[in-house]
Amino acid sequence: MNTDTNIVTSAPPIQGIHIPAMRGKQGDRPMYLLLVTNRVLLRNFAAEAEIADQGKKVQRTMDKRHASDIVTYITENTEDYILGAMTYAIDVVGDDHFVPAYSGSEIGTLILPMDAELRCLDGQHRRHAIAEAAREDDRVLDDFSAIVLYVEDDYTKRRQMFSDMNATPKVVSKGLNITFDSRDPYARAAQELASSHPFLRGLVELTKARVTSTDGKIFSLAGVYDGLKRFDLGMVLPRGRSPKNHQPEEIVELGNALFDLIDQALPQFGEMRAEIAALDSVKEQSEAIKAFRRRTLLASTTTLRVITGALHEAMKDDGITDVTKYRKALSKVDFSPTSELFTSEEVNFVGRGGTPSARNQEVYAATKALRDAISLT
Q1: For residue 7, how many other CB atoms are within 10 A of its CB?
Q2: What global pTM score does this model have?
Q3: 129 in Cβ contact with 67 (< 8 Å)
């Protein structure tokens, strides 16, 4: 680690790296909150991947593809990107290494010993991404990052800290992320279409990752989002956030054409909407949808992904840009749970209980089978 004399205006007369900090503790373990420029972060706080002694690793192995996604996010949103605090452990910080701003204050200057052993417990991908992003845009170096620094010299306890931090977090559902996302043009289009298009209005679960039997809904917002992307981009979608070569308005127009075609070609949906609209309670609506699912594979987010992907692939193969050309072919497809198209050994799309299989290989096989079934050539 290198000394940075510009971090504070008047550094205490103790050798080390002087950083403004707030002191506290969790349980019996001392901790400090630091706010440093990324320039200081990169000079003084190494990522776990840079540690040679693999026997004392307290982090997962670096996933460079994940870090690359974060680099793209930072460089595409330099004005308003957001990265959470990184967590480090340091082996020793004595009482004389914290100089309070005034007597009794928990705000002051932390002096990191020059021979301190620092280990990253959480945030190595963010730290790595900041370094890469700064190579593309050095303005990133002047931005700030937050660090939570624990004092812990036992590497087995550091490993336990890593395990504890990852034992309780709950992953936010894709549907909720899409509901809140105002950057991704496909997410914005999915939000608008879910609330405005007659085919989807009232039938889309907006926050949960999956639709349950008691929701009174047919599709998840994540499924509508994936459907739009598959219709526009194909079966194999790019990693990370969506490409930004479309405006939301263009994708909404694309979605209107897509869902108009599905609604016209598959009148079962209109019948289902009418039946649901005639029922008063969510419980009754849920029972009606469950009965609908027993009759057809159509009442499924997974099947929606298959249909949208198959339409894209068929249009690409046929050299056609007008999706309405597939209305007749799609209307002839058997979407019953016993459909030979979807139950064949090669496709195996229908799982136990007559429901669609969401496994990637079955979805991919079903998409190709449906593409072949509706192809115009």
Answers
A1: 17
A2: 0.75
A3: yes
